[in-house]
Amino acid sequence: MSAPRGEFSSRFGFLMAASGSAVGLGNIWGFPTNAASNGGAAFLFTYLILAFALAYPALMAELIIGRHAKANAVAALRGLARNDATRALGTTVGFAGMVTVSFILSFYAIVSGWMLAYMFSALADIVRADGLSSWLQTPSLIRDGLFTVIFMSLTIVVVVAGVKHGIEKWASRLMPSLLLILLALIVYVMTLDGAMDGLRMYLVPDFSRLADTSLLLSAMGQAFFSLSLGVGTMLIYGSYVSKRENLPALGGMVTLLDIGIAVTAGLLILPAMMVALNSGIQIYDDQGGLVAGPGLIVAVLPALFQQMGDAGILVALAFFVLMSIASVTSSISMLEVPLSYMVEEHDLSRRKAGVLLGGGITLISLVIAVNFDTLFELVVSLTTEYSQPLLGFFFAIFAGWIWNRNGILQEIRQGCDDAEHGLFWRIWPFYIRFICPVAIMAVYVQMIWG
């Protein structure tokens, strides 16, 4: 436990790191198509309400626990325990979070490797290296393995550099770049034929869908899990926040940034998909739903870029740079969860822990890549549909039922002297104790039984 802990040097650095963790590939490709498939603006309206009413309180639970403990997830939850039973529960939840986030990173690295391959393919197109470009766009075990290793190496380099000189430094550079590229692409796509159809699909509400419970559960799941909740990433980032910071305000800013970028991504993805449809590219799957997930990124949009001629090469480059940035800002937060445990509990250097953990996760990624058809969807399902929501439930239980209420208030007062008189303290304890656990379990049950 002798290894020194890092700390974010500025509020801006924390906001960029935390929003970078929340804004990943799934946010950019999943949120827009989820909205369009569930009533457009009706989904957006429901999502916005649930994000602030439910996801924000859950986010605050992780941030408060993290800053109070100034430790990794296992030590933080054990420190809140009241007896041997809750101590064992804290240890179990902490370890389960580390295992879950490591497996999430293992499949995330494969998809992120695809983003890097397509980015380099666009660069190859610029210099007219057609053979190289074709190889980079063609799925193969060699290509996928190579770029998975490259992506994980980038992640390890950033995380090993530490909180201030690694995570904060690069998040502060990459997130503004992501926003600028995203806005520039939106402006360009809006000039193309079919873009307005996508905008209408995204923003025109179908209020008849509000009575559909699947919309409510879908929006609730998106609100909870787009903020990286349940596996300890926000707890770890919270542990690096200064005691001088106003946590309720800081958590609100992270929530606003995440929601804002997710909603803004919809202004790019849905119009781009309708532009693709207008160009004769298939955007619906065999079941009649909009293509989402990896299929959207590696099939629909690249086909659209190819039809744009020389301009399409630059658009493709900008888009896959955007996706690569989103990948890295999320992956560094995932690797930080088990790394912080290894550094603090086993007194390893960040370099040694990063290489060991990153190397191990890379090996898991390569095993998944070799057995892609069998393992990929299985690992995705077990981690994001089963493990993550259940872990989120237990984080809410620790904050709402196990941790002493006065202890929570004392932690919030650091950086917010009159916290007990504010709206946050009047509402949050009730939400985290009753509403959030019930809501998370509702999502969990819906994911299991459909």
Your description of this structure?
The chain has one domain (about 10-450): Amino acid/polyamine transporter I (Up-down Bundle), CATH 1.20.1740. The chain has 18 helices and no strands. It has helices at about 10-20, 25-35, 40-70, 75-80, 85-125, 130-135, 140-160, 165-190, 195-205, 215-225, 235-240, 245-280, 295-305, 310-345, 350-370, 370-400, 405-415, 425-450. The chain is globular. The relative contact order is 0.19. Keywords: Membrane, Transmembrane, Transmembrane helix, Transport. Its main location: membrane. It comes from Pseudohongiella spirulinae. This is Transporter.
Short précis:
This protein has 450 residues and is mainly α.
Main sheet overview: none
Count of structural domains: 1
Q: State the end-to-end distance.
A: 44 Å
Mean pLDDT: 91
Give the name of the CATH architecture.
Answer: Up-down Bundle
Strand content: under 5%
CATH class: Mainly Alpha
Q: Give the overall shape.
A: globular
Number of helices: 18
Low-confidence stretches: none
Radius of gyration: 21 Å
> Helical content, roughly?
over 70%
Membrane topology: Multi-pass membrane protein
Subcellular location: Membrane
InterPro entries: Na/ntran_symport, SNS_sf, YocR/YhdH-like
Protein name: Transporter
